[in-house]
Amino acid sequence: MIRLACTGLVALVLSGCASFSEDGGFTPVAQLTQERTGLSPSYPRTAAQGDAAAARVAALLQQPLTADSAAEIALLNNRALQASYAELGIAEADRVRAGRLANPSFSFGRLNGAGAVEIDRGVMFDLLGLLTLPVASQVEQERLVLTQLQAADETVGLAAQARQAFFEAVAAQQLAGYQAQVKEAAEASNALARKMVAAGNFSALDQMREQAFSSEATVGLARAQHQAVAAREQLIRVLGLAGPQLDFTLPERLPDLPAAPVEPQDAEQTAMDQRLDIRMARRSTEATARSLGLTQATRFINVLNLGYQNKSTTGERLAQGYQVELELPLFDFGATRAARAEATYTQSLHRTAAIAVQARSEVREAYSAYRTAYDLARHYRDEVVPLRKRISEENLLRYNGMLISVFDLLADARDQIAGVTGAVEALRDHWVAQTRLQTALTGRSPNGL
């Protein structure tokens, strides 16, 4: 009885060591996200915290969005992200449960016959669970850490998605506005051509060319307007906006190209040290190794219960004792569990190596895409757009000197369409490529954006 009481006391002490954290395991997620995005995510667990997050979102929506404010709104307002944070509570509950001994079982039996009543009572404790409790707790702690890394990975990924969606929405809006100007000019040109044909000063063939351009401009505007709507709706989905929140304002144009490109130092090593998917793979391998140790420790003994038992019979003294339940490894000596754990560990090792190889390649590819996009945007800014502007100014001088007709001037305006459109798209591609590069360096695979 004394030994049994000591066993129960030890179980109670160990059980008391496992408890829930005040933040639900969210602090590491917030720290990892802050380090990689400069933003602090929110996991409201009370009404007051929810109201504070909603007030912050409302304040950000009062001003024209920026890439940073769009990312912050997504982290505060995206319901899918908030739903994924619930996995933290599940993982923490499993950790706490693993740190507590399983509830004891009570058995009671009563036999009546031949004028006598026989009563059996027993209380059983999971002794094997008590012996392996520290290792089991460590395994579940590792799973909680993996869940936190996964939550941070999703958070960083969502911030990158918000930035990318912002740049695409602004570019689409900017192109739609420019396409509206093109259509207006095309309609004016077509109307003038019709009048000149009626006056006999313009050929029917040239007039049909102006009409065709006007028709193409109408089609281009319709497509550009739809693309602007689609890009805005994509941004809305990422930010998790609805109802009155939809009335937000985007800036009229994309941010200017930086004076110099980003030159990351030791990019591949940075990815190896900082990328969350690599950290998850490493921790998963470590957790699997610990799980393998637990499997090896319990491969022969899978069930071991110890308990107190007494028996009372009518007219006889109370009989007391203990009972041990032990699974006999007659048919399965634990080899299947050990083999499965070893195979899982080997699989985890290879997956970690594969993720590392992929991450290095993605960093190199992302940097190449970024430098190409930067160089193209700079080329448009420094060469193409200024050249088109000088050509336009020269043609305007020639028109004022009556050396070319108004249709020659309009033809030059049509030639500028490709240059302006290319410049906007190149600037958009630069900002998107920079977002993907940063994600490849410290967050996750950019292919998921």
Structure description:
With 449 residues, the protein is α+β, with helices and mostly antiparallel strands. The protein folds into 2 domains: 287 residues, Outer membrane efflux proteins (OEP), CATH 1.20.1600; 154 residues, Outer membrane efflux proteins (OEP) (Up-down Bundle). 70% of the residues lie in helices and 8% in strands. A 4-stranded antiparallel beta sheet has the order 1-2-3-4. Strand 1 and strand 2 form a beta hairpin. Helix 9 packs across helix 11, helix 10 runs antiparallel to helix 11 and helix 11 packs antiparallel against helix 12. It is elongated and about 130 Å long.
Number of helices: 12
- Within CATH, the superfamily of the largest domain carries the name Outer membrane efflux proteins (OEP)
The CATH topology name of the largest domain reads Outer membrane efflux proteins (OEP)
Rg, Cα atoms, Å: 35 Å
Query: Low-confidence parts, pLDDT < 50 over ≥5 residues?
Result: 1-6, 11-16, 299-304
| Secondary structure tally: strands | 4
What is the overall silhouette? elongated
Name the features.
4-stranded antiparallel β-sheet, disordered N terminus, 12 helices, 4 strands, 8% strand, alpha+beta, Outer membrane efflux proteins (OEP), 449 residues
Topology:
Blueprint: H1 2-17, H2 27-37, H3 47-61, H4 67-77, H5 79-98, E1 105-113, E2 116-126, H6 127-131, H7 133-198, H8 204-239, H9 267-274, H10 276-297, E3 304-313, E4 319-326, H11 335-400, H12 406-442
Antiparallel strand pairs: 1-2, 2-3, 3-4
Helix pairs in contact: 2-7, 3-4, 4-7, 5-7, 7-8, 7-10, 7-12, 9-11, 10-11, 11-12
